[in-house]
From TrEMBL:
InterPro entries: 3-oxoacid_CoA-transf_B, CoA_trans_fam_I, CoA_transf_AS, NagB/RpiA_transferase-like
Pfam families: CoA_trans
Keywords (A to Z) from UniProt: Transferase
Name this protein carries in UniProt: 3-oxoacid CoA-transferase B subunit
Organism of origin: Neobacillus ginsengisoli
Similarity-based family: Belongs to the 3-oxoacid CoA-transferase subunit B family.
């Protein structure tokens, strides 16, 4: 399992029976392959599918069956297809239980930027703004740093903000943070990762769970 698969698998553990779940572009699409056994959820794609299944193998790819990121998908028995307007009505109507989104940056308050990079053309806003405002719970999945080694968890956003809505959980290749009114709370370290490494690679300030401090002291 590579690090992106680890992040997706960790996010999948947050899903509960009966959740209606929207998977954003990037790492979130991989969550479909790691739904825990015995947990039945309904995966939603804003291009008009409810009931997305695991990633198809090469022998079973249908070029006409794709998710919002234009990646091939399978569908589960009983799945439904509808137009984009109906799909966004579901989102805006508060019918999505959990949205799992990729990001460019997260700030110290838990707000995200994930739709535009300054100086680069924007093909479309996409559904992130609607998902942030309409979903009951927001989980972010991302690598902790950029390819250049810069923290994605920053004091202040330098990319255009997506929404004032703060996210609920941040899952990276290094750690898991919950987001509360007083900021970010480090609640879990990834296997083999130390608190010191997370501190070095996180620009934004954060609180540390007592369990993590205790484990570091006893290590």
């Amino acid at each position: 399992m590579n690090v992106k698969q680890y992040i997706a698998a960790r996010a999948a553990k947050e899903l509960k029976q009966g959740d209606i779940v929207n998977l954003g572009i990037g790492i979130p699409t991989m969550v479909a392959d790691f739904i825990p056994p015995g947990v039945h959820v309904f995966l939603h794609s804003e291009n008009g599918i409810l009931g997305v299944g695991p990633t198809p193998d090469q022998a079973h790819i249908d070029k006409e069956l794709v998710n919002a990121g234009k990646l091939p998908v399978t569908v589960m028995e009983g799945s439904a297809f509808f137009d984009s307007a109906s799909s966004f009505a579901m989102i805006r109507g508060g019918h999505v239980t959990v949205s799992i989104l990729g990001v460019l940056q997260i700030d110290a308050k838990g707000r995200i930027a994930n739709w535009a990079v300054p100086g680069k053309s924007v093909l479309g806003v996409g559904g992130a703004m609607d998902l942030l405002e309409g979903s009951k719970k927001i989980i972010v999945t991302t690598m902790h740093t950029t390819n250049e080694g810069e923290s994605k968890i920053v004091k202040e956003l330098t990319y255009p903000i997506t929404s004032e809505r703060i996210v609920d959980l941040i899952i990276t290749d290094l750690a898991v943070f919950s987001v509360k009114r007083d900021g970010l709370h480090l609640i879990e370290l990834a296997p083999g990762i130390s608190l010191k490494e997370v501190q070095q690679k996180t620009e934004a300030p954060f609180h540390i769970a007592e369990s993590i401090i205790g484990n570091e002291v006893n290590a």
